[in-house]
Design a protein that fits this description.
Number of strands: 36
Structural class: mainly beta
Shape: elongated
CATH architecture of the largest domain: Beta Complex
CATH class of the largest domain: Mainly Beta
Strand content: 35-45%
CATH topology of the largest domain: RNA Polymerase Alpha Subunit, Chain A, domain 2
Oligomer: single chain
Distance between the termini: 165 Å
Helix content: 10-25%
Largest sheet: 7 strands, mixed
Number of domains: 4
Radius of gyration: 50 Å
């Protein structure tokens, strides 16, 4: 028998150029991650009971630690000795209301941190009055719900009350804007232009309460307001004394639109300084200077428009022989402000000196400065500004020594005057025996006035 020949498949070379290189590590990582995930999932699947037990045990241990460190306690709200404070409302009352108001206390369970800063609003107490008839008393259980999920109501004190439901009465009342505070300086509310929506509401409740209501108010604070403003808020029913009355108001809210307008204006007015007392014998006041002569005044239009000058306290010149210069505070009209608080006043005082000659001879020329009065002012006009007239007086020395500024009268006639500035004649009157030199026309400015002539 001839020899058999076994045919072999191709064999992998063990070296040389035909050797196969190991795979790259970058390609091995995904395979390792997949293998690890499969191993973990398989372990959980095979040991699910042990994993579930471990989870439950962990939660149990956490609850035990929490109870030790922050245990649940019970407290009374409000605290013992304080009056009940959780108001009770009626449920399923239909159109009936409770005749009396009730409040209860509660015993609560929770952790210390959850029981801090409790207020009545954290609870909702109610009585189910379904099936009750008007004016028939019944005993009903009080139930309380906690608005804090971590706080449980354990007990209600009292747990039941005697309650009577009655038919409410209704009444319609207009809404009143109850203003507090002051608008900014220089502004005021045009109350006739302010509006409120709705204009009226219906109040309902116990007959005696409804009867005691005198107004339904929308409270509005105007402090510092400068512009038109809109205020929306809850309505409040008040009695004659201003106490709040508990009734139902429909609708419960309103909106007020307030018109605010600027009322302050500014004008520049002359400052007038008067003197009191008599200078020393043989001396006379020849001039009164005010620096500055005019000052700006700001205030409500109704006040400022009625002013034509500013004044200071009278300056006492009793016995004076020389010029008097003082700072005088300006009298501030009510509800106004001034551009400056004071002025400097100089009263010029000179000895009475006559020309040479025997006593009683005419004086050589002594000049007085006087403030004129105005007459025959045309209707609808008024003079604007501060005016003075220089008057030269001559006469016997004995009369001049006794002459006072108030003895000299200078009158300006504005007859035939018109808007603008022009000269008007001056008439000077002096005591008998003295002579006043002619005075030139005075330049006077006439402006429109809301009043009549002066």
């Amino acid at each position: 028998m001839g020899a058999r020949t076994r045919r072999r498949g191709p064999q992998r070379a063990r070296g040389g150029a035909g050797m196969t290189m190991p795979e790259s590590p970058r390609l091995l990582w995904p395979r390792l991650l997949v293998a690890l995930a499969r191993s973990s999932i398989g372990s959980i699947y095979r040991n699910w009971a042990l994993a579930s037990f471990s989870l439950v045990a962990a939660f149990a241990i956490w609850f035990v630690i929490e109870d030790v460190e922050n245990p649940r306690v019970t407290v009374r709200f409000p605290a013992e000795g304080l009056p009940a404070a959780v108001p009770v409302e009626a449920r399923n009352a239909g159109n009936l209301i409770m005749k009396d108001s009730f409040a209860v206390a509660v015993v609560l369970e929770g952790r210390d941190k959850d029981l801090e800063n409790l207020v009545p609003g954290d609870f909702r107490a109610y009585i189910d009055v379904q099936g009750m008839q008007a004016d028939i008393e019944d005993v009903r259980e009080v139930k309380v719900e906690s608005r804090r999920s971590s706080v449980r109501v354990v007990e209600v004190i009292p747990s039941a009350v005697r309650v009577t439901v009655v038919e409410p009465v209704e009444r319609e009342l207009p809404i009143t804007i109850r203003r507090t505070g002051q608008v900014a300086a220089g502004y005021q509310e045009a109350e006739t232009a302010s509006t409120v929506e709705p204009a009226a509401v219906v109040i309902s409740g116990l007959p005696e309460r409804v009867a005691s209501v005198r107004s339904v108010d929308l409270d509005v604070n105007l402090s510092g307001v400068r512009d038109n403003t809109t205020v929306e808020g809850d309505l409040v029913a008040r009695s004659q004394s201003g106490a709040q009355v508990v009734v139902t108001i429909t609708p419960a809210r309103a909106k007020a639109t307030l018109q605010i307008e600027q009322t302050f204006v500014q004008r520049t007015l002359p400052v007038e300084v008067l003197t009191t007392g008599d200078v020393a014998s043989g001396y006379m006041i020849t001039n009164v200077k005010v620096e500055p002569a005019t000052v700006a005044v700001t205030g409500p239009q109704a006040v400022v428009s009625g002013l034509n000058k500013l004044t200071t306290p009278a300056l006492d010149v009793s016995g004076a022989r020389t010029d008097q210069t003082l700072i005088r505070t300006i009298d501030e009209p009510q509800n106004t402000s001034l551009g400056r608080p004071s002025v400097t006043v100089t009263v010029e005082i000179r000895p009475i000196e006559c020309s040479s000659g025997p006593a009683g001879a005419p004086c050589g020329g002594t000049t007085f400065v006087v403030g004129p009065t105005f007459e025959n002012t045309p209707a609808g006009l008024t003079h604007s500004g501060l005016y003075s007239v220089e008057v030269k007086i001559t006469g016997p020395l004995t009369q001049l020594r006794d002459l006072k500024p108030g003895d000299i009268k200078a009158t300006v006639s504005l007859a035939g005057g018109a808007l603008g500035t022009r000269g008007y004649p001056v008439t000077v009157t002096v005591p008998g025996g003295l002579k006043a030199e002619p005075v030139a026309n005075v330049q006077v400015t006439l402006v429109a006035s809301s009043g009549g002539g002066q």
